[in-house]
Specification:
200 residues, mainly beta, Immunoglobulin-like, 9-stranded mixed β-sheet, 6-stranded mixed β-sheet, 1 helix, elongated, disordered N terminus
């Protein structure tokens, strides 16, 4: 259905897609949870799911993190979205596209301050993207990252098919659990065992 929105100088027709919502879901090897030790690297796929016939040629979204501290290393678009092309306006760290690892910190695109990576791109002229793996982030857990849980969410801003807005929404969040290295765990168990022996 289309509606006409008056503007000060001209009239713009804005069309809204009748399809069901796209869902943006962060996954690693198809799973929404992962446990890693410090000093580990992993890939996070942002996967779009939708109804048959749902397509877009413009994608704008943020990947948000519940805590800072992960190191952003790279990203790669899939399908007809060209990584680093003229239409790739992704800006993970307000300073532009990153060539070197950077600590994920508060960015400026979210309505409220958030730890996020901003992703924005058009498909090549005359092409569209339907569903599947949209973009992949490479992230690193630094050696000094505190143990605990980081929740990662893919938050769509806008998806368009031409002038038609394709409804979109966040899917289930991804949970990264940072666990002790085996050496640390062994030392901890050895210490507990020694403590128990002393108490006997």
């Amino acid at each position: 259905m289309c509606r006409v929105v008056p503007a000060v100088v001209f009239m713009l027709a804005v069309c809204v897609s009748a399809h069901a919502d796209y869902l943006a879901v962060p996954l690693h090897d198809g799973a929404d949870t992962l446990s890693l030790e410090p000093n580990s690297t992993f890939e996070l796929d942002i996967v779009l799911t939708g109804e048959p016939g749902d397509v877009h040629d413009s994608a704008i979204l943020d990947v948000t993190f519940s805590l800072p501290g992960l190191v952003y290393e790279a990203y790669a678009w899939h399908g007809d979205h060209v990584t680093g092309g003229l239409d790739d306006m992704s800006d993970p760290d307000a300073g532009g596209l990153l060539a070197d690892p950077q600590v994920v910190t508060a960015a400026t695109y979210s309505p409220t301050p958030a730890v996020d990576v901003h992703l924005e791109n058009l498909t090549e002229f005359g092409t569209t993207f339907a569903s599947g793996e949209l973009v992949t982030l490479t992230l690193h857990v630094p050696a000094d990252m505190p143990l605990g849980t980081v929740t990662i969410t893919a938050v769509p801003d806008q998806f368009f098919d031409g002038m038609a807005l394709v409804p979109s929404a966040p899917g289930p969040a991804f949970t990264l659990t940072i666990i002790p290295e085996p050496t640390s765990a062994v030392l901890l168990l050895a210490g507990l065992a020694a403590l128990l022996r002393r108490r006997r």
